[in-house]
Amino acid sequence: MGGDNGPEIVLDGAAMALRERPDMRFVFHGRQDELGPLLEGRTPLAAVSEIRHCDIVIAMDAKPSQALRRGRNNSSMWNAIASVKSGEADAAISGGNTGALMAMSTFCLRPIKGISRPAIAAIWPTLRADTIVLDVGATVGGDAQQLVDFSILGAAMGRALFDMRYPTVGLLNVGVEEAKGLEAVKEAARALEAASGAGFVYYGFVEGDDIGKGTVDVVVTEGFAGNIALKTAEGTARQVGSYLRSALKETWQSRLGALVAMTALKALSRKMDPRTVNGGVFLGLNGVVIKSHGGTDATGFKSALGLAYEMARNKLIEKIGDGMTRFGSTSTDPEISGQPDKIKATPA
């Protein structure tokens, strides 16, 4: 029921996702009088879906603490999360209030044992391949232990989503030199370097431009810097797209050139479209919760549903538990000993 565009784009996105993954099933939590007529007009989707009526809808501007107190009494957001806890659903997806969704998810599902705080992970298109970046907004500030936890979570997501055997992990910093950065970042680097090989390979410090280059598989930072980096990248993509569209319309020669290069321009547009990587994963909880952009359309919501499907299908929670078990042990695998630059995105 949340998001800027109401429930219609959620059902449209679900219908699109169903065409790509026919084994998906849906439970829509919300107001029956709004959802019922929308679902009736989408016959294939209606055949694999049910509606659970909820009296309460969490407002987009509600404070997390207020939403948590009020929302536990039959709200659409709470009931969706609770269905994951009960095992009825494999994942919960919402385009609603981010703070409320995180507060409810943490309270209902609880953090995985050994994880201090959950993080929001985003999929980031790069010049090499998609990269995982976390945290992008759940935790403002963070100590060394939280950065280590985020590294374990991000590596587990890499193994689950991209079938990587040893994802490379880098800590976002103001420089690559060991002496640079906050003490918490340097302390986390020492811990990760000592444990490199326990389900991941620690690459070292990375800078902001390394994200777009795809230097590592997982970029780890605290939520303040991560959220700014994410919003800056999204804004830059829109800015470049606007510049390009204006330039291609400027003269008849540029319009003719655009027609000649139409195939390449469409491919570029798809690559820069933030809807194709919509969905932030709440990592570190005992269940899969995906936060969709509130302002997305049906295509973007379809992407969030696809991400949730892959997280559940590839047993993300089990892989995180495995990462917690393996962390702290030093690998003796000759494939990775002393060769972190040779095993990026190694398939299992």
Description of the structure:
Helices cover 48% and strands 13% of the residues. It starts with 6 loop residues before the first helix and ends in a 22-residue tail after the last helix. It is an alpha/beta fold. Helix 7 (144-162) packs across helix 8 (183-195) and helix 7 packs across helix 14. The longest helix has 26 residues, at 223-248. Residues 328-348 have low confidence and may be disordered.
Notable characteristics:
13% strand; alpha/beta; 48% helix; globular; eight-stranded mixed sheet
Could you give a short description of this structure?
Helices cover 48% and strands 13% of the residues. It has 348 residues and is α/β, with parallel strands linked by helices.
Overall mean pLDDT stands at 84
Largest sheet: 8 strands, mixed
Give start-end ranges of low-pLDDT stretches: 328-348
**Spatial order of the strands in the main sheet?**
3-10-9-4-5-8-6-7
Which structural class best describes the helix and strand composition?
alpha/beta
Query: What is the quaternary state of this protein?
Result: single chain
CA distance, first residue to last residue: 39 Å
Total DSSP E strands: 10
The portion of residues assigned to helices is 40-55%
Topology readout:
Blueprint: H1 7-20, E1 26-30, H2 32-40, H3 43-46, E2 49-53, H4 64-71, H5 76-85, E3 91-94, H6 98-109, E4 119-124, E5 131-134, H7 144-162, E6 168-172, H8 183-195, E7 201-206, H9 208-213, E8 218-220, H10 223-248, H11 252-260, H12 262-272, E9 280-283, E10 288-291, H13 298-313, H14 316-326
Parallel strand pairs: 1-2, 3-10, 5-8, 6-7, 6-8
Antiparallel strand pairs: 4-5, 4-9, 9-10
